[in-house]
Batch of 2 targets.
Target 1
Amino acid sequence: MLAGSAKAYSAILFDHMSMSQEELLVRRIKEGTVLDHVEAGRALRVLTALGIKGEDGNIVTVAMNVLSSKMGKKDIVKIADRFLSQEESDRIALIAPRATVNLIRDYRVVEKRVVHLPKTFVNIFRCPNPTCISNSPEPIVPELQVLRADPPTLKCKYCARLLYPVDVLSNQ
C-alpha cells in the first residue's frame, strides 16, 4: 500500500531553508491543494496514501525538512489543479495528524481545514499481522477501524488485532 518511488513524483525538493527562501524556491499554485504542517519526512507517505503517483499530469511539489517556527521542521505538499475532499484529507490523519489542508483558488486560500481520524481506513494501510486473511492471496480489502482517537488505537476488521500508528506505519 504505502510503497512508492520518489521517481514517480513530478518535483521533489529536499531543502533546508528559511520561510522567506521557501517562498522564493517553491512556486505558489494558482489552483489546487496545499498540505502544510506535515511531520518532517512523511510527505512521500502522504502522497502514497492519497494515491498520487505523478501519472495524472498534475504538478506535484514536495518540500521536505523545511524549517518551521512551530514544528522545527516540516514537509509541504502542493498538488496543482486537484482539490482534496474531506474524506481524502482524513486519509492522511494517521500519517500526518497535525497537517492542515488548504484549498487554493486564484492563488488564495479559500478553505482551510485540519485532518481528522476517520472511522475506518479502507484499503489504505495493511494489517501487520502476517497471518491475517487480509494479507493472503484472497481478494480481501484491508480495513482498519479506529477505536480511539487519542491516543490513536486501531483494530483490524478481520483478525481483530489492536494496532497503534507505529505498528501500521512501520508495516508499509
Note: The chain has four helices and ten strands.
Target 2
Amino acid sequence: MAKVHNYSENLLSLEKKIMIYGYIRVSSDKQTVENQRFEINNFCKKEKLIINGWIEETIWNHSDRFTGPEE
C-alpha cells in the first residue's frame, strides 16, 4: 500500500515562524510612548504586519537638566 503524503502539512512545517516586536524608545519630554506606538501600528497596518510584542525603553539624559552647583 502506498503512503499518502499530506503536502499542505509538509509546507506548514517548512514555513519560517517569525516574531515581530515593536521597539519604542522615549528619550525626551517631546516624545510619548503612545504616539510612537500609534505610528508603528499605522506602518504595520499598511505593510500587513502583526506585532507580537512590545519593547519599551525610557531614557532620560539628566545632564541636560543639571546646571551644576551655583558659584
Note: The first strand starts at residue 21 and ends at 26.
